[in-house]
Write a structure and sequence with these properties.
By secondary structure, the protein is mostly helical. It is built from four helices and no strands. The longest helix has 30 residues.
């Protein structure tokens, strides 16, 4: 059987790793930032169209009433909320608040729950 030499690099099985909640919150903070960046052109276009006149505003309203677009809005709202709460968490940790393991886990849970609650409230409003 082959034995790895200690001076050789070790390849970690990335799909087999179990990340703790703070790692997931940090990873999703990056993902939400990318989603917000990708949503920016569509949001600016919709704003520009809505401000150009009453007919264009009505057309934007009709487009935003479609179920697929509402789902995209829900994802964008989750991304915004999660990015906000996780960003505040990261800023506080940069200032050395909540850097202990227990506090980091609590703040990660709080950021994830807060983002989820905002998304849940938005879903209730959009789809009710």
């Amino acid at each position: 059987m082959y034995k790895a030499r200690p001076d050789r690099p070790v390849t970690l099985p990335l799909m087999g790793l179990r990340m703790p909640l703070p790692a997931w919150v940090s990873f999703l903070h990056r993902v939400s930032g990318v989603l917000l960046f990708l949503c920016l052109p569509a949001a600016l276009y919709a704003l520009e169209r809505a401000l150009s006149g009453a007919e264009a505003f009505a057309e934007v309203q009709r487009q935003l009433a479609q179920p697929a677009v509402r789902l995209l809005l829900l994802v964008a709202v989750w991304a915004l909320a999660h990015h906000l709460f996780a960003g505040i968490r990261h800023l506080l940790m940069d200032l050395h608040f909540g850097t202990e393991l227990a506090a980091a886990r609590r703040s990660a849970r709080a950021a994830a729950v807060a983002g989820g609650l905002v998304a849940l409230a938005t879903a209730w409003r959009l789809f009710a």
